[in-house]
Every structure is written in structure tokens, then in C-alpha cells.
Amino acid sequence: MAIFEKEPIFIPKLQDQKIFEAGFSFPAVLMDASHVIWRPKAAKKVKESAGVFIVDPSTHCMLFNEAKGKENFKKLSYPADVQPEKIYSDSSFRRENVIIPAVDNQVKMGADIIIAPYFFAMDTDDIKFGINISMIAETIRYVEEKGIDKPIFVKIQIGNNVLCRPSIVNYIVDRYRDDFSDKIGGYFISFDELDCKNATEDTLGGLAYMSFQLSEGKNVIIQRIGPFGEIISSIGLTGFSSGLGDGESLVVKNLEKSPQGWSNKVKKTYIPEVFDKVNDEIVKKIGYKCSCAACQGSFPVGEQAKKQHFVHRKMEIMDALSKLDRPQKIALMEEKLTKAIKLAETYNRKFAIDLKTIHLKRWLNVLQLAKNWSYEKDDDELDKLLQDLEK
Ligand SMILES: [Zn+2]
């Protein structure tokens, strides 16, 4: 039975239930375990209003100084001040102190799926890459022993530099897909400091290729991603997850030490017609109008209105995509990207502004590539297929 009611979907990452007060309902919602333990009442309301309630065990935080010191994280029963080597080398210590609390927390918090504990790995040479693979097997064993009847998901959280190296992308796919294929429901994937607006076409192509290869018979959800999320969802993924407008990228170094000082943040509004967040001054200058329920023919003003506008427009495109087959989905996003490039160029000429279009052209190229992809069979499967044919 399918876990999610349709695909692709947008999975908001929430800290509280406020967005539901605007009347939204979501096929799935994600919360960090530390937020659930911080605001149990809010989490209960979120769970009641979501199709699938997902709790991220956030186990990666235990290896970063700033993140593990946070009050709410400390309440999750993970080991405090543990030597990483102990976790890496001692599987029974790992079971008691990482696997069991991570799984039990999710069950207690009412999660509908179980995300296996994971650590951030810079690349495939990082010792944590192998540890993550071991922890998947250990999680499957524990969940089976306890008779927990919920689908197990795996999280891949890795440095973005793996994406421009095809042999590494293939290696990751092989390890994660072939080792556990019968036992898991899908994947959450996120990349450190991945900026889809500035990333090269090779990096974006690697991201799309990895996600697509993992998606054969499995759910694939990209986390912490901006407007490229809805583009990439069209190639056959379950969808993407992000906050409601801000903090859409993963920056691991901030888990070790928070950035100091206040940055003077420019106020911006998401304009889906150009797949970008645009400076509020420009939003006014171009006379931007949106017909969503929050904007009602105007543009959103204030933080809450901007969040609602963001959610309305994300849900709208994901709903449209969910009614189409794969070639139609890609075609729809190609059409929207082509229109966005033209619209941005028109705005630039007419209002003497400088909306960027170069990333939109890269995104379009990635979709062109993805059109002809098919799932790669591994060697064993090919051998078996050939044997069957001979018979
Ligand atoms: Zn709107």
C-alpha cells in the first residue's frame, strides 16, 4: 500500500501548528524530534492535521558541539559528550544509545514512519558513510525484533561535492539501493551547502540522477531545498520538504558553531512565476499580483501572509503535477521554466532590474537530460534476466 496519498507532494517542515490555522491540510508533515519534545501540544495538533506525520530523529546533531548542547536536543536521551570513536567502533553501544532512543522516540511521538538514525558524512570516504550503512541494518533488526509495524526510511545526508562525480553517485546509489531494497520504504536526501541557484549543471544533474535511480519502487524526498524542489519532483520523485519560506538549505558548519552577529536580512517574497525569491522593493516595482487565497489579487504583506502564499503556491503546483504521468510532469515544468525565463527577461527590460535567469536555463537542461533516463539494473539482476531469457 502506498504510504503517501499521491505524488509528488510538498512536505512542510514545521516547528508549530500555526499554518493549520489558515485552513491548510497536508498529505505529510515533518518535524524535528527536538521540536516535538519542545512543543508536545503543538506537535499533537500537527500530527492530527497531517496525513503522514514524520519525525526526524536528528541523530546527526550528537556529533556537533553547538547542536548537541541545545536544551531540547538534550531531552532526546542520546548520549551526552560521547567520543565519536565509541559510536563508530562499538555496535552494542550504538544500539543502546543511538538506535533504540532514535526509534523509540519516533514511536512515542506518534510518527507514522521510522527514519533510521544517521550521521552527516562529508563524502563516501568519511567513516560515517559506512557507519550509516551499518545503522540501517541495525535499525531494521531492532524494528523487526520489537514488532514495530511502520515503514522504515533511510536518510542520506552528505556533502554536496559527491554530486558532480558520477562514479561516486553510482556508488552511493548501489550501496543504499541494493543492500536493503526489500526492507525500506524510501529515502530522505539532503546535501550540505547545496545552493541550487548557483550549483553547476553537473551538480544538479548528479542530484537528479541519484534521486531518480533511488526512486525505483521507493519514495524519494529531497529535504532542505528551494524552488528546484518542485522542478526535480517532476522526474518521478515523491516530493520535497522545506520550511515555509526560510532556511531551505542545510549548513552543517552552523551545527558546530552558530554564525555570530546579526545579518541584515533583505525582505523577500517568493514569486513562483520566476522560481525565485525576490526583493520586496522589486515585488512592488513590477506590480506583482497573485491570485492565491492569501494574496487575493495583490501581493503578500507580512510574514504570515508570505508563508501562506508560499504554501498555497507550492501545493498548487504539486497538485497539478500529481495528476500527470512522468513525461507530462516534465513537460509541464519545462513549460513553466521557459515562461519564467521570458517573464524575468521582460521584467528586466521593462523595469531596469536584474532578475537572474542563468539558473533557470541550467534547470531546464537538467530536465532535458532526465527525460530519457531509465532505472539501471545491477549486474546480478542482469545476469538473472539473461538466465530467465535463456530458459
Ligand atoms: Zn499568493
Textual characterization of the structure:
The chain has 391 residues and is of the alpha/beta class. The chain folds into two domains: 9-256, Queuine tRNA-ribosyltransferase-like (TIM Barrel), CATH 3.20.20; 268-370, no CATH class. Helices cover 46% and strands 13% of the residues. The protein has 16 helices and ten strands. The strands form three sheets. Strands 1-8-7-6-5-4 form a six-stranded parallel sheet. Strands 2-3 form a two-stranded parallel ribbon. Strands 9-10 form a two-stranded antiparallel sheet. Helix 8 runs parallel beside helix 9. It starts with 8 loop residues before the first strand and ends with a helix. The model has no long low-confidence stretch (mean pLDDT 93). The structure holds zinc ion (ZN).
In a few lines, what is going on in this structure?
The protein folds into 2 domains: 9-256, TIM Barrel; 268-370, no CATH class. 46% of the residues lie in helices and 13% in strands.
What layout of secondary structure does this protein have?
Blueprint lengths: L8 E4 L13 E7 H6 L1 H10 E7 L8 H4 L2 H4 L9 H6 L1 H18 L5 E2 L11 H19 L6 E8 L6 H13 L7 E7 L8 H14 L4 E5 L4 H6 L5 E4 L10 H4 L11 E4 L4 E4 H6 L17 H20 L3 H26 L6 H13 L8 H12 L1
Helix pairs in contact: 6-7, 8-9, 9-15, 14-15
The structure holds zinc ion (ZN).
